[in-house]
């Protein structure tokens, strides 16, 4: 019962992050399941099963707050579903000894990306009004969907920054559209895992706990996306993902680090993480008024 309650809280926290940043629900949840020894394919399958419900509720909430561009959802969501199904069946064929460190490596790379992206980068260049073309969104969806299934997360970390960097869709609609299209990805990935591993190893109680926490958080996150400083939250979450997956890799057969090496590595990673968060807070306070002005101007242009 205690484990289920903790998982529900993880699902709640992960969805608050995902609904506010447009990323990190799967990465955060899968990282936790791997850390407690879950089979990689089963961990990803469990998280994607929970995401069917959380993304449905999140998409409805974002739609309610006017955060969704349905053309973008269709153009990226369908190829994303194809990539997710392919990634799920691929992961299902790997042995646990190979898949566990491989998945942690993918999650570590995504965590570093999230950490650097939100610590260093400010708001993207404003190119609002220019359409997002299918030739851009289709390959992006395929890659993001494949990474999402094989890494247990990645739809948001791959898709959200790419669309934000184009500057063609305002931040809140980028996040809302990515969250909404993820429903298609979650369904396709779940089907892929059913084909690959059946229902064996999938803990439905864990999936339900993650789902309940995520459903509670989804409407709150859709509202918070207008108010929360993404730079600070991204640094906090990115650092947590990096630290957790560094721990998994150091304990794997690939590395098998000694206790002394592991301790030094943890201290270095933690110091970099704290520095990143401090920097993000400082930069947010410094540029707060300017960033608010840019966002207000962007929303006026598309109103």
From TrEMBL:
Lineage top rank: taxon: Bacteria
Alphabetical UniProt keywords: Cell membrane, Membrane, Transmembrane, Transmembrane helix
Membrane topology qualifier: Multi-pass membrane protein
Pfam families: TauE (PF01925)
InterPro entries reported in the protein's UniProt record: TM_pro_TauE-like, TSUP/Inactive_protease-like
Localization (cell): Cell membrane; Membrane
GO CC annotation terms, alphabetical: plasma membrane
Membrane-spanning ranges: 102-123, 181-198, 204-225, 232-250, 262-282
Family per record: Belongs to the 4-toluene sulfonate uptake permease (TSUP) (TC 2.A.102) family.
Protein name, as recorded: Probable membrane transporter protein
Originating organism: Mumia flava
High-level lineage: Bacteria, Bacillati, Actinomycetota, Actinomycetes, Propionibacteriales
């Amino acid at each position: 019962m205690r484990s289920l309650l903790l998982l529900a809280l993880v699902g709640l926290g992960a969805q608050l992050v995902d609904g506010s940043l447009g990323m990190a629900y799967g990465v955060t949840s899968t990282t936790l399941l791997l850390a407690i020894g879950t089979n990689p394919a089963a961990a990803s399958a469990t998280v994607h099963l929970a995401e069917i419900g959380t993304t449905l509720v999140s998409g409805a909430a974002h739609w309610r707050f006017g955060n969704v561009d349905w053309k973008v959802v269709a153009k990226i969501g369908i190829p994303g579903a194809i990539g997710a199904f392919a990634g799920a069946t691929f992961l299902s064929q790997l042995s646990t000894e190979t898949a566990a460190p491989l998945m942690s490596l993918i999650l570590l790379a995504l965590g570093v990306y999230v950490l650097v992206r939100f610590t260093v980068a400010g708001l993207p260049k404003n190119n609002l009004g220019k359409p997002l073309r299918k030739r851009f969104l289709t390959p992006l969806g395929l890659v993001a969907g494949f990474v999402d299934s094989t890494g247990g997360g990645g739809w948001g970390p791959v898709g959200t920054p790419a669309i934000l960097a184009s500057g063609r869709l305002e931040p809140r609609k980028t996040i809302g559209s990515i969250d909404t299209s993820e429903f298609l990805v979650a369904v396709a990935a779940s089907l892929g895992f059913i084909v690959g591993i059946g229902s064996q190893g999938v803990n439905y109680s864990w999936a339900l706990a993650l789902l309940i926490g995520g459903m509670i958080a989804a409407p709150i996150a859709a509202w918070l996306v207008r108010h929360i400083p993404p730079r600070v939250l991204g640094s906090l979450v990115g650092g947590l993902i990096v630290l957790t997956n560094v721990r998994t890799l150091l304990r794997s057969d690939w590395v098998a680090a000694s206790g002394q090496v592991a301790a030094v590595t943890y201290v270095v990673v933690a110091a970099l993480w704290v520095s990143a968060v401090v920097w993000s807070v400082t930069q947010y306070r410094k540029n707060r008024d300017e960033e608010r002005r840019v966002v207000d101007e962007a929303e006026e242009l598309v109103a």
